[in-house]
Amino acid sequence: MATNENLPPNVIKQLAKELKNLDEAPPEGIKVGVNDDNFSIIHADIDGPAGTPYENGVFRMKLILSNDFPQSPPKGYFLTKIFHPNIATNGEICVNALKKDWNPSLGLRHVLIVIRCLLIEPFPESALNEQAGKMLLENYEEYARHARLYTGIHALKPKPKFKTGVISESTTTRNVDQTNSSVKIADQKNAVPGAASPLAPKLENGQDQPAVITSTTETGVGGSMTAPLTHKKEIGLAKAPSDKKKMDARKKSLKRL
């Protein structure tokens, strides 16, 4: 396995340029990651193509560059388990671009695109996974079921931990109840003493029924003090006998005359 120390300077320069280009303009469904201190191992995440048994999956793979790269092709491995005719159980990738069709002028972009195309169109004739290759040729539905099962177990995209913009019905109801309670308390504090309640029942002619005012008794330090209404009533009762006495006295004076 090569490292930055034993790769030729011109190769390092070319790799740095190509990796920068892959980062700025990645191929569709492919995201590349690299260690700046070691260009000999290049990781990539490949999205499962739509319409295939690998859809909704994310598959991590790596390319390993040898000391004489680019004269010899890199070796490719899937790190995510996958059920595929051209990918061995240990993750090794079998594709002509990394074998007999390799050309030093081929770049990493071309290699990664070819590997993703394998997920769209496998080649069971050159299978590394014989079970998957045989199943693909004899019963595609069974092969697709196995591939989807592997994808769901090993390569399913992680779900977000928190949902944004979603408020549960119970939370909304609780907030509304709290708001209504706050409004009621504020109305009670701001209410004018003796004013009719806004919820007071109405008479048949549509007029509001006046609120009933009850007399209250406040106890002071020296004893009890009646409310103003009670006090006025007692003064009226005391004045009635006095007026009657005056009238009786006037009648007696008239009789004497």
From TrEMBL:
Residues 206-219 have a biased composition (Polar residues). It comes from the Eukaryota. Residues 247-257 have a biased composition (Basic residues). Belongs to the ubiquitin-conjugating enzyme family. The active site is at C94 (glycyl thioester intermediate). It holds the Pfam family UQ_con. Residues 231-246 have a biased composition (Basic and acidic residues). This is E2 ubiquitin-conjugating enzyme. The keyword Nucleotide-binding applies. The keyword Nucleotide-binding applies. Its EC number is 2.3.2.23. InterPro entries: Ub_conjugating_enzyme, UBC, UBQ-conjugating_AS, UBQ-conjugating_enzyme/RWD. Gene3D superfamilies: Ubiquitin Conjugating Enzyme (3.10.110.10). SUPFAM superfamilies: UBC-like. Residues 189-257 are annotated as: Disordered.
